[in-house]
TrEMBL record:
Main location: membrane
Origin species: Hominilimicola fabiformis
Cellular component aspect of the GO annotation: plasma membrane
InterPro entries: Glyco_trans_2-like (IPR001173), Glycosyltransferase_2 (IPR050256), Nucleotide-diphossugar_trans (IPR029044)
Origin organism lineage: Bacteria, Bacillati, Bacillota, Clostridia, Eubacteriales
GO molecular function: glycosyltransferase activity
Classification via PANTHER family: PROPHAGE BACTOPRENOL GLUCOSYL TRANSFERASE HOMOLOG (PTHR48090:SF1), UNDECAPRENYL-PHOSPHATE 4-DEOXY-4-FORMAMIDO-L-ARABINOSE TRANSFERASE-RELATED (PTHR48090)
Keywords: Glycosyltransferase, Membrane, Transferase, Transmembrane, Transmembrane helix
Compartments, record wording: Membrane
Listed transmembrane segments: 240-260, 272-296
Topological relation to the membrane, as annotated: Multi-pass membrane protein
Domain Glycosyltransferase 2-like as annotated: residue spans: 9-176
Name of this chain's protein: Glycosyltransferase family 2 protein
The keyword Glycosyltransferase is assigned to this record: yes
Length: 324
């Protein structure tokens, strides 16, 4: 049998006092089973990241770490937001583990596919995406907006995994890859596919949040979606140019139409020139804005300073290093 894996599960928590006891209980049970099966080793950990909670979240985490050696805690100085808390947790643990799984605190994502994720890791996958089978438990509104969001992202040319949120396993080297992304505006489900390496999906049914309220109210959700699109795609800028071009074509048709009207004498004084100039100037303005947008788009890509590539393997290089 293969060597058991040193697994870290990273759980961002914001005002999660209502769920932490149950979540840790279920996760510890699962850890026990996975240890018995020889899947994970004794150094494996569940790491709760307190994202500046205002309730008893941190004192509960503190208690849990004292009662169970498998549990550790990280406390952020203030609320940094889900994506930042998750990234911070992953970056903190990446050098201690073979692979890390990120999961929400509320058990909406079925923890029982964790062994499958780990098995896929053992089989050589660096990234294992948790993908939701069905979303019956979400409200109709959340379901439709979510589908709309994934479709829109794909339409904008952003490579994201359909129905995957932030429930995923990443190997240490995939985390090292992720660490090379220096951007401040995090949208992890868009960034992880950019890292590369071999990836696969595991499927699960999404449960209801068993206690507490969603920490993603509509306003936060919309701003997250907007951030996702504008951090990954310059398509909206391109759309301005395209729209400008369409308006220019209309201006041309309008010019012919106005000319014909003028020739057959159907127009009042000034009508034709007014119509043509309004359309023409409108088209030219949109095209110009789009053109300026192209340059801003280039700037936007440059200021991100994303890694151009991530190296997967060296051949012969390792020996050189060992000789040193
Ligand atoms: N969360 C966080 N910081 C925040 C908001 C949320 O760490 O500012 C955590 C939250 O505790 C949970 C996860 O992010 O573990 C997802 O939030 P939630 O379950 O409320 O979102 P939903 O499932 O409703 O989209
Ligand atoms: Mg949730």
């Amino acid at each position: 049998m293969s060597k058991s894996v040193n697994l870290y599960v990273v759980v961002p928590c914001y005002n999660e006092e209502a769920v932490l006891h149950e979540t840790s209980k279920q996760m510890l049970e699962l850890f026990g089973e996975m240890k018995n099966d020889g899947l994970i080793n004794d150094n494996s950990r569940i790491v709760f990241v307190d994202d500046g909670s205002k309730d008893k979240t941190w004192s509960i985490i503190d208690e849990l770490t004292k009662a169970h050696t498998e549990i550790s805690g990280i406390k952020l100085a203030k609320n940094a937001g889900h994506q930042n808390a998750l990234f911070g947790g992953l970056m903190t643990v990446k050098d201690d583990c073979d692979c890390a799984i990120s999961i929400d605190a509320d058990l909406q994502d079925d923890i029982h596919v964790i062994p499958d994720m780990v098995r896929n890791f053992i089989d050589g996958y660096d990234v294992v995406y948790g993908v939701r089978n069905k979303r019956d438990t979400d409200t109709f509104f959340k379901r439709t907006t979510a589908v709309g969001f994934y479709k829109l992202m794909q339409f904008m040319g952003v490579n994201i995994v359909f129905n995957h949120a932030d429930y995923r396993l990443m190997s240490k080297r995939a985390l090292d890859g992720l660490a090379q992304f220096p951007e401040r505006n995090l949208f992890l489900r868009g960034m992880v596919p950019l890292v590369g390496y071999r990836s696969t999906n595991v499927y699960y049914d999404r449960n209801e949040r068993f206690a507490g309220e969603s920490k993603y109210p509509l306003k936060k959700m919309l701003s997250f979606a907007f951030d996702g699109i504008t951090s990954f795609s310059i398509s909206p800028i391109r759309m301005i140019s395209a729209f400008g071009a369409i308006v220019c074509v209309f201006a041309f048709i309008m010019a012919i139409y106005a000319l014909v009207q003028k020739i057959i004498g159907h127009t009042g004084a000034g009508w034709a020139s007014l119509m043509v100039s309004i359309w023409f100037i409108g088209g030219v303005q949109l095209l110009s804005v789009g053109l300026i947008g192209e340059y801003i788009g280039k700037l936007y890509k440059e200021v991100k300073r994303r890694p151009r590539y991530i190296i997967e393997a060296y051949v012969n290089e390792k020996e050189k290093e060992d000789d040193k």
